[in-house]
Amino acid sequence: MDLNARTRVWRGGKLEKEGFPAARISDYLAEPDTIVWLDLCDPNAEGLQVISEEFGLDPLAVEDAISHHERPKLDHYQGHLFLNAYAVRLTDESGALATHEISAFITERALVTVRGDEEFDVDALLKQWDDSPDLAKYGVAYLLHGLIDLIVDGHFDAVQSLDGAIDGLEERLFADEVPTRDTQYRSYRLRKSLTLLRRVVLPMREVVNTLLRRDLEVVPEEMTPYFQDVYDHVLRATEWTESLRDVVTSLQESRIAIQGNHLNQVMKKLTGWAAIIAVPTAVTGFYGQNVPYPGYQKHWGFVVSLGILIATALALYAIFKKRDWL
């Protein structure tokens, strides 16, 4: 079995060895009171076929592990469970969200994780396990809890970061008289990231809830409070995501309203100035007729027309200014 893999084995609740060849997994599983972890990064079909034969995995589950962009789920097969989930993180200040797919085969004494790329932080997963060595005596449930807890914590951190980014966008939106192109771009990126985050967070509620079912016999009674704590985090992340969705929708509506109000202000001012210009134009047009009228070809007639022009323009300006039309 020539695979680029990371491995660990626990015996009697104690970490015994790590970094051993994947070919020795069957030897450890043949010994009593051992649990094994195997991690594969972007394996090919041939490599997973070897693992499938080693652990007795269902071909459909193996196919899901190879194919990308599967939805988050927990499938029950004979002899094992198949978990698919996504680790997430914000990549930059603009609010872009990166997702990293990870699958896991859960057997009675082994956990096999399959990563789609190198971006998933395996060292953080190992630290998660190392920080709670007293739980290792509960077998695969201990490994599974560390994995799901790490993924859900990442979801919660992403929701929290998006919340901060949306607050900043809200301040910028109402600080600018007119939303700038950068503000509109950030709004678009945040809406896109929130939609993507919602697609990976919401199904985790059903995943963790299914693991807590007693008929699966995956989570021992002693580990139930730990999984319930993860479930609580999933619910909070889900509710937070839904509330942010409403906030982003409100921001979008507010942005459209601000743009509409600004357009109304512009049209109001243009209309006011057009009215001011129209009255002097009418006066000069009247006095430009080629027919006799009071003051025709007289100096005082020019003075009167000029006075009417200035007076009406100033009167209209004062009226529009008082009514805040200019």
From TrEMBL:
Membrane topology type: Multi-pass membrane protein
Top-level taxon: Bacteria
CDD domains, A to Z: TmCorA-like
Localization annotation: Cell membrane
Keyword Transport carried by entry: yes
Residues that span the membrane, as ranges: 270-288, 300-320
Gene Ontology cellular-component terms listed: plasma membrane
GO molecular function, one term: magnesium ion transmembrane transporter activity
Keywords, in A-Z order: Cell membrane, Membrane, Transmembrane, Transmembrane helix, Transport
Gene3D superfamilies: CorA soluble domain-like, Magnesium transport protein CorA, transmembrane region
Family statement drawn from the similarity comment of this UniProt entry: Belongs to the CorA metal ion transporter (MIT) (TC 1.A.35) family.
Protein name per UniProt: Magnesium transporter
Organism this protein belongs to: Actinoallomurus bryophytorum
